Amino acid sequence: MIIGIDSSSRVGGLAIDDKNYYELEYVEDIPHKLGELGIKPEAIEKILLTIGPGSFTGLRVGLAISQGISLPFKIPILGYSTFLAMVEGAPAGNLLPILHARKKVVHVANFKKTDSETEEIFTNKVKKIEDLIDYAKSLNEKPIIFGNGAEINREILESNGCSVHHSNPIAPFLIKLFKKNASHTLNPVVPFYLTPSEAYRKREKADIILRPMEIDDIDEVLKIEKDLFPEPWDADAFYISIMMKDSLSIIGTLNDNIVAYMIGRPEEEKFHLMNIAVSREYWRKGYGSKMLNSLLKDLEKSESIKSCFLEHRITNKAAFEMYKSFGFRVAGIRPNYYSKNIDAVIMEIGV
C-alpha cells in the first residue's frame, strides 16, 4: 500500500493508493484517519509527501507525522514539490499554480503543459500579488491561475481581469508522480520553505543571547523555576545537568539578566528535552521559541539523534499549541505523571 499526504496548507489531504482520497480539517488528523480506516503502519510500503512550498506549519507537521509513521518500520518517505503535484492534476495550458504565503504575497510557478509533456518556465518564486497580476497580463497565452493562493486572492485577481480556475486535490497526484518516477527527495529531513512563518521571523529576531548554563547561574534559574512550576526542580537537579558530560544546559540572557533556560540530554537515538522555561514577565516575546528553534537546528546536524521528545501537563494548552506549531506530534500519554494524578502528554518531532 502507498499513501500520499499533502500538508501544503492547514487542511490535510490523504490518498490511499490511487483509489481513495480524504480531505481532513487539519493535517494533524491524518494518523487518526489511518486508524479509522484500519490501516496499520506495517501495511504501508511508501509514504509520498508534499515537502513545499506551502504553509510553514502545515509542512512541518506533515513531515513530523510522516516520520512518526516511517521511523519504527523504516518506511521510505518520498518528498515531492507541491507545484509538481499541482501541475500533474491540472489541465493542459499555460499554468500559474500559486500558494498562499502571507497577506498579498504568494508562492508561484509557471509551467507550460501539453498532452505529451510539461515544460518548466520557472518555479518556487515569491511574488506580491500585484506583481503576479502584472506578470500574468504580460503573457501571450492567457494563464490558468489556480491553487489556494488564487482562492484567497480571488477578488483582487478577478477585478484585474485574471480568471481563477478550479484546483484539484493535491494528494492523489502524488501517487501519479510516483508512478511516473518523477523527481523526488528520499527521506527528506526538513521541508522546503520559500518564506518563513511570521512566528519564525519573530523568534529569529528575539533579542536574548543563548549561552551554556554555569553553576553560578543556578540561584537565578531557581527563582524562575519555583515561580513557574508546582513541582520545581531543586538546585541539585540543575547542578547534575550542568556537570553531566552529554547533557545540554542553556540559558537565555537579556541585558545580562537570566530570563530563560532549557535542559535536555540524549537517550539513545532520541533527545529528551526535560525542562524549558521563560521568566513570567518575559512571556509572549518569542524567547522560548528562539531557544527551541536553536535546539532543533542543532539536532538536525546530529548524525546520531533521530528525534526530539518532551513531556508537558495535559492541562497546559499553551505548551501544546506552541510545540504543535513547530511540528511536534502527540506520541503518547504518561498516566499520573505529575502530582494530583495529572497525566503528561508526550510530544515528539523527527530531526
What does this structure look like?
With 351 residues, this protein is an alpha+beta fold. The protein has three domains: 2-82 and 185-195, ATPase, nucleotide binding domain (Nucleotidyltransferase, domain 5, 2-Layer Sandwich); 90-167, Nucleotidyltransferase, domain 5; 199-350, Aminopeptidase (3-Layer(aba) Sandwich). It contains twelve helices and 17 strands. A seven-stranded mixed β-sheet has the order 11-12-13-14-15-17-16, sandwiched between helices. The chain has a six-stranded mixed β-sheet with strand order 3-2-1-4-5-10, with helices on both faces. Strands 8-7-6-9 form a four-stranded mixed β-sheet. Strand 16 and strand 17 form a beta hairpin. Helix 3 (82-88) crosses helix 7 and helix 8 packs across helix 11 (287-300).
Throw out a few tags for this protein.
six-stranded mixed sheet, 12 helices, Nucleotidyltransferase, domain 5, globular, 3 domains, 33% strand, Aminopeptidase, 32% helix, alpha+beta, single chain, 351 residues, seven-stranded mixed sheet
Compact overview of the structure:
The protein is an alpha+beta fold and 351 residues long. It contains twelve helices and 17 strands.
Element pattern in H and E: EEEHEHEHEEEHEHHHEHEHHEEEHEHEE
CATH class bucket of the largest domain? Alpha Beta
State the distance separating the first and last CA atoms.
Answer: 26 Å
Percentage of residues in strands: 25-35%
What spatial order of strands do you see in the largest sheet?
11-12-13-14-15-17-16
What is the total tally of β strands? 17
Number of domains: 3
Please outline the major beta sheet: 7 strands, mixed
Q: Nearest-angstrom radius of gyration?
A: 23 Å
Percentage of helical residues? 25-40%
What is the average per-residue confidence, as pLDDT, rounded to a whole number?
91
Shape: globular
Structural class: alpha+beta
